[in-house]
Amino acid sequence: MDRRTIVSEFVGTLLYVFFAVGSLVVAAQYVGAVGVALTFGLVLVGLAYVFGAISGCHLNPAVTLGALLARRMSPMTAIGYWVAQFVGAIAGAALLLLLAKQIPGLRTDGAFGSNGYGTRSAVGINTGGAFLIEVAMTFLLVLVYLAVTRKVALNGFGALAVGLTLAVVHLIGIPLTGTGVNPARSLGPAVFAGGAALSQLWLFIVAPLVGGILAALVSMLTHPHGAVPVVNEGQQGPVGGLTGDDTTGTGTGTGVGTGTGTGATTGPGVTAGAGGGRRWGHHR
């Protein structure tokens, strides 16, 4: 196991909880729900560009579970990620508590950025509804993560896609449960909030893990590990090409043909047009 990946997950989760949950604890009345949602998403984007190439910047046990089930990582590596994430989340929440104590009049008991349902929900959502929305939101988040990565590394526009998805689920989930979708993020603040935050914590651990499992199952069907998108015979491919039979001369166009003349075969099932005019993946 690469020590850098464990350090990245620990530090990344610590910073994620401190800044993202911090926006909910100390700045929510100034930035509102939209500002909090954007903070969660943008903090993840920033951290992904720092740690994405090292550990994949999971920062979330549900994402790690999805990656494990999708055969992107070994069980021992996943266990190391989970330990780093939970410890990092508690450390981040402790640092946030230290900051909150410096603000006169700011209460930290009972809420402190924790998740909840029933009387602890802004709209009073019940247990079943909270479980359902947490599963659904985590399913979307993990599915996007698995779709934009082939192994573990999270790079380029993939980080932006995951961050924007996290912001979207927060826009939906903040009034319902406060948006968990991350067992580590839920555990850290709950440890210091105490009371009902701890008694309701089970849902925000179990539901996201269920969402991660479902996302992994779907991902293995739609995005098999190491596979490329398959286009059916005779259908237009992602770059204007066509795929087809490799024995009859009908085949995959290599791009935009430039002629109305006869095609020249360039390989098994591959034809390219020649001449004047414009043709898209023409068969002969």
UniProtKB/TrEMBL annotation:
Residues 232-284 are annotated as: Disordered. The keyword Transmembrane applies. It is a multi-pass membrane protein. The chain crosses the membrane at residues 12-31, 37-59, 79-103, 123-148, 160-181, 201-221. Pfam families: MIP. It is found in: Cell membrane. InterPro entries: Aquaporin-like (IPR023271), Aquaporin_transptr (IPR034294), MIP (IPR000425), MIP_CS (IPR022357). Its main location: membrane. Signal peptide: none annotated. Residues 250-278 have a biased composition (Gly residues). Belongs to the MIP/aquaporin (TC 1.A.8) family. This is MIP family channel protein.
